[in-house]
Amino acid sequence: MSKTVHIGSKSQFDSLLRSSKIVVTDFYADCYLDQIRSHLLRSTLNNNGKLHNDTELRRSLLLLYSRTPEIVESIKGADPRKLQAVVKKLSAEADSDGANGFGEASSSGSASWMAASLPKGYSDVTDQVDVRGLDLLNSASECGTARTLFDNSKPSALDSGKGKGKGPSNEEEDKKDWVESDTDEQLMLYVPFMSTLKVHTLHITSLPGKDDDEPPMRPKTIQLYSNRAHVLGFDEAEDLPATQAITLSPRDWDEKTGTAKVELRFVKFQNITSLVVFIVDGEGSGDKVRIDRMRIVGETGEKRDLGKLEKVGEHD
């Protein structure tokens, strides 16, 4: 059953809009605060086609969103019958659109491209990546940078079908919009966050070119290290115990989107301020590994004060 989520920031609200087919937002005035707060309910229908009993109506303005972060219906005052009818209608429309998959960006252009469905109760929190602090070791200079991995756009390889295409909107036209390793198959990625996160899943997209004589490989062995103050060196990472080690198999990659959903041991990824993603090797006998996109799925917590030094754990 869906629960009421108290919205604390615009980024959190935008993230929830992207992760839900239907969103009912309740805006109400608080006499003690000179601002408008929003309560968001990710509304679903039960088997009888009725709203869950915990749906709460107030003397308020209810705005309904569907598929894209655009208002498609508004209801003033407590009118449960009208809300019931509108949600049922939008639910039917959303279900009919499901055949289009999750690989398309919204028509408004403001939502992030998603290659895989989100686990129930969690949202895309990739917008909490602090791109200014990203670091990537052993990446080929002719390919994209660490920022490329978190770009909102759909990978060009999905349009060209050959792994070749122009870079995303914030890069030069001739820049490849993916990352490849350089001297060997290993990559080391440092990802700091602007908020404290609970990380549930990583979506990793890898689309090796089919027509290349020596195509790069998809990642196979991945080691994750949480809450590090900076990127790790390759030798350093080999000597440290990983927070979690993952081994991907060919069947983990979706044939259509080239994406693997990497579910984490959730209890180990609470209160996360940064991740180090160590690509140890690839699937195959090649010399290079390729990654096109990466998405972070979980929950957003308190904003971090990035202007102050923070105490790190004993392992730092």
Short description:
With 316 residues, the protein is an alpha+beta fold. It has helices at 10-19, 80-97, 146-149, 157-160, 234-239; strands spanning 4-6, 22-29, 36-41, 61-66, 68-76, 123-124, 135-137, 179-180, 187-205, 219-226, 244-247, 259-263, 272-282, 290-291, 293-303. It has five helices and 15 strands.
Structure, described:
Keywords: Disulfide bond. Pfam families: PITH. InterPro entries: Galactose-bd-like_sf (IPR008979), PITH_dom (IPR010400), PITH_dom_sf (IPR037047). Belongs to the thioredoxin family. With 316 residues, the protein is of the alpha+beta class. 13% of the residues lie in helices and 31% in strands. It has five helices and 15 strands. Strands 6, 7, 9, 10, 11, 12, 13 and 15 form an eight-stranded antiparallel sheet that branches. The protein has a five-stranded antiparallel sheet with strand order 1-3-2-4-5. A two-stranded antiparallel sheet has the order 8-14. It is globular, with a radius of gyration of 21 Å. The two termini are 41 Å apart. About 17% of the residues have low confidence.
Name the descriptors.
316 residues; 15 strands; 13% helix; 31% strand; PITH domain-containing protein; PITH_dom; PITH_dom_sf; disulfide bond; Galactose-bd-like_sf
Helix content: 10-25%
N→C terminal distance:
41 Å
- Global outline: globular
Q: What is the overall number of helices? A: 5
Helix-strand pattern: EHEEEEHEEHHEEEHEEEEE
Low-confidence stretches: 30-61, 96-110, 168-173
The overall pLDDT average reads: 76
**Structural class computed from helices and strand pairing:** alpha+beta
Biggest β-sheet, characterized?
8 strands, antiparallel
Strand content: 25-35%
Protein name: PITH domain-containing protein
Keywords: Disulfide bond
GO cellular component, one term: cytoplasm
Family: Belongs to the thioredoxin family.
